[in-house]
Design a protein that fits this description.
alpha/beta; 7-stranded mixed beta sheet; 7 strands; 19% strand; elongated
Length: 236
Amino acid sequence: MDAPGALYGLAAPGAVLLVGGVVWLAVSGPGWSILPVAMGAYMLASAASFLYTTRRGKFAVWAGVLDGLALRGGERVLDMGCGRGMVLVQVARRLGSGTAVGLDLWRTRDQSGNAEAVTRANAHAAGVSDRVELSTGDMTGMPYDDAAFDVVVSSLAVHNIPGAEGRRRAVAEAARVLRPGGRLAIADFRHTGAYAEVLTGLGWTDTATRDLGWRFWYGGPWTGTRLLTATKPLEP
């Protein structure tokens, strides 16, 4: 699950509030007891939204994003902060002679079960391990040459970098490793406007952001995910 602590932080107190409120309501009748019932129901509904997104919704949304990129099959694609490989595997399934490269620090704080061995196993189970390469590294200083990739994608990873300067370096690194004419797609629920500003400062003009809808809510529209797409200019 993505950010398991946040999910449990919604579900557990929500259940306590709802049960406690129902007991209070049964004992005392309508009144202030309605408040914990409403709060508990609200938190459990948010937890259900979160759970749906992390288990199903994000897969469907990214399938549409990748279809929109219209990969031809021979590209070299980087997934920054690939985690267990949700996007990486979907990319690899769309490739023939190309390669899907996943970069991560393999931390479990923001995604349960995040480990290189798990991602390799997922790629093997999906039948795409021959098209997948994995690297251990930091998005703010990636171990790749300039213009090494045709496409760079990232899902809910860049926001985990502490500090605006660190996130700026990560987006600048994504720009560096893209070839001229290469495409970028970053999904995040924070800072996508700031990511776009970094690219604008680098002279990119073909950038756009859009909301990815209810299937990518982590609890509700206030934690919805936005997508930044951009194309690297052909001329410096």
